[in-house]
UniProtKB/TrEMBL annotation:
Source organism superkingdom: Archaea
Key word Endoplasmic reticulum present: no
Keyword tRNA-binding set for record: no
Stretches that traverse the bilayer: 15-45, 57-76, 82-102, 109-134, 154-176, 197-222, 242-261, 273-295, 301-323, 335-354, 366-383, 404-431, 437-458
Protein name as catalogued: Uncharacterized protein
Keywords in alphabetical order: Membrane, Transmembrane, Transmembrane helix
Signal peptide: none
Amino acid sequence: MTSDSRLPATTGRAIALAAGISALALALAEPLVAGGVLVGIGLSATVGLSAGSYHRVAVASALLPIVVLGGVAVIGPAGAPIAALSALVGVVLGLAAGGVLAGEPTPIALLRAGAAALCSAVVAGGAALVAVWIDTLGGVGPALAAVPLLTGDGPSGLFLALVAAVVAIAAALFLVPPAAFTVPSRRDTYDRTRNALTRAAGVATVLAIVVLAVLTVLSVFVPPLEWLVDVIAGSVVVRGSIAAVTVVAAVVAVSATAIRATWLQTDGRRNGAVAIIVGAVSGVGLAFAGVWSLGSVETNVVAVAFGALAIVLGAGWLAAWLYQGAVLRGDAPTPSTVLAGSLAAGGAIAGGTVDTVLLDLETVRVGVATFVPIAAALFAYDVGRYGRTLASEIGHEASRRPQLVRLGWSGAMAGAGVLVAALGLAGAAVLAPALSVPATAGVIGALVAVGGGTWLLVR
């Protein structure tokens, strides 16, 4: 986070406090908002960590899919659109509150967070396919037993397994950047060693295939050799070892390809690609293992959850990319503005759930969830604009006294607005049986206009 984009400390804490109170008010109407706020705070923390050292980048990349999976678990089962929208508002609210306290995300933090989201999306998509495959085969046990036999049964399947293994090994050896193991002055030695290892793997594979082919041909004339060929071709140890080597080499080759691509797209000497990839794979792997260890979760549910995780992470990458471009252009909305918008949206959503207006506890609950966030949105926008002016003219270490005066004034005006809105709601409850809906709306609008006009005149 950049220090020059931060609001003065007192102003930032006041906005965060107003956001917290409003989140509690919104939770009165929809409890899922609280879960969404926690997810948003977690996302804000991962973005903040992405601006640090590579160790922190790895931790942030590992936490990102876990936090997003928590968001999917919160919003996914919501069912009703209003509940899902309220939870999404909570996510944006928590994310913006973190930005208010720490400052606008830097372009490098957004770049790394977006890359982690994209990498995690790919891995999560793969995890979803694995879950579908496990569900198709009827469980983990049958799936594990089927892995060594993916290339087929018998000697022909073993031939294909050996060829796939040597191709994966060669790809891993040639795709891994030489800088990962040596320095430029010893590049020739590294090349000779790599080529020798590749030739050795190829020769060993050819010898194994030739020996197996000879035994297969001789088994036609010597029946006992047929039993030996079947034992070798169907051995779980042999086929499992070959499958494990193939999978590891393929993962290394794919990761090396991604690392090479990121290095070609950067002008700097340092790159967080390795930390991002390691963290993303570890995070999705831990999330997959954690969900699977619950036992009570059905396989098809796991597949749907990680498919949704991949989609959300892909959307997160797009959002981070677009926001990074806005930050570089200097036209990105400030965290306080985003926070104000999310509060206003949350209040509007809560207000939209009202069917009838009566003087009862339900009306009070919905009224609090509607008016408090909207008043807090006005407060956050007004105070945030004042804080940005103060930070640009004096700095984020400005004196507390003028901030407290402005906070008290804006808070009092916001409280007065809540009072006027509450009176309007009470008037609507009283007048609703006697007046038509348009007339009642006119009365409420008049009261709100009087309150807003008074605020503007006093200012």
